[in-house]
Amino acid sequence: MEFLGDVLEWFATADNWTGTQGVLHRTWEHIQLSAISVAVAAGLALVPGVILGHLGRGGVFAVAVVNIGRAVPSFGILALALPVSIKLGLGLGFWPTLIALVALALPPMFTNAYTGVRQVDPAMTEAATGMGMKGGQVLWNIELPSASPLIITALRVSSVQVVATATLGALVAWGGLGRFIIDGFARGDNVMVFAGGLLVALLAVLTELSFSLAERFAIPKGLRVASSRAGMPAST
Amino acid sequence: MILAQSASDPLIRWDWVWDHTDDIATATWEHLRLTAVAVALGFVISMVLAMIGLRWPKTYPPITWAAGVMYTIPSLALFAMLVPVTGLTFLTAEIGLVSYTLLILIRNITAGINSVPPDIREAALGMGYTKRRMFWEIEIPLATPAIIAGLRIATVTTVGLVTVTALITLGGLGSFIDSGLRRFFNTEIIVGVVLSVALAVVLDLAIVLVERWLTPWSRHRATVGN
């Protein structure tokens, strides 16, 4: 109980909230880098995923990407990004973390975009073609709306993973909320470690929740019943 | 891609690797032990929770909700919150690791059992099977492929997460990554990452072999199908 009191006191101390090392600034850094990473990864992965899905090519590649993405530890990706960043003359801190987070977010985005478009019922696309739609129109009017639930799921999964791994950025001298954990460990300050852990956990859960809410509104009406019934598919 | 970019430098110093074979063997063993204990415990706990969820369907949503929250909390954050309570111990690492396996395993066990065709259940009950006997002798064997699929994902994920336990001083292959990162020594980083990926692949293959041995009928069907 005494420990929890110390934690409360930590959160009640104004100095821990303000300044460049305070909670507010660290949270902002964390959100900022996560958002940039997700945006960059989406820009790089979604278009090729959707186009390959439309053309029906690259299925083996899509499966390989998921399996490799799962087996490579995110801590390892971050560690490998450091020498890459140094070699490119980008140094420590922001860049290696960004490179790692983008690399981490690419596989789920690419695969879900690909699978989302591939999974569209061929009867629908054939009907659309029969009605005189061109390839691009089929993609825009039929395939993309049908794939949107999986694409939004990919954004959610990647964002949560990116927010989680951004914590490790403190190890390559970046800021973010991970600083409280890593610095706390280094100083043997358990109160700071716990506070940092709590803040990161809250941010991750909030990210998950806000995307779940966004999913409800962003999914086309015609797909809502089907997707809510299917829920999150078991991984097989 | 990453490897190619740093290819101009001595990417890996083999002399360091040969000088540290003992450390590498120890770390691999620590990694394997942390993973095996986590997946085994996670499987037992998930089995119990899945059975509760199947027996009383109302409990299923809260069970998966709680497992989902555990799954969402980043590993380092969870360790950070546990360390003040349980210290820098094996227990701290295992609490964190086990909690990440639960969502995957509970979901796959439940989906596997729910996918057993109703006519098979009726046939079993008609032949006089009790519910308990039907569960262990009919439903579990038929759900094995889905359960194994969950175990594979849980195992591969756990191998990756165990690298983070190095940060709470529990060794494993992550200790090379951590040390390489602190010393700017690429060889150590690469050894840690490559062996961790290799371990994940080997364990994944091992589980596939166990599945073949456990479900001889699906292999038979595959040969008939060909």
Short note summarizing the structure:
The complex is a heterodimer of chains A (236) and B (226). Chain A has 236 residues and is mostly helical. Chain A contains ten helices and no strands.
Q: Biggest interface and its residues per chain?
A: A-B, 49 and 53 residues
The level of helicity of chain A is: over 70%
Q: State the distance separating the first and last CA atoms of chain A.
A: 44 Å
Mean pLDDT score of chain B? 88
- What order do the helices and strands of chain B follow? HHHHHHHHHHH
What oligomeric state do these chains adopt?
heterodimer
Instruction: Tell me the helix content of chain B.
Output: over 70%
> What Rg of chain B is obtained from the alpha carbons, in whole angstroms?
21 Å
Structural class of chain B: mainly alpha
Unreliable stretches of chain A (pLDDT < 50, length at least 5) are 227-236
Name the average pLDDT of chain A.
85
Shape of chain A: elongated
Proportion of residues in β-strands of chain A: under 5%
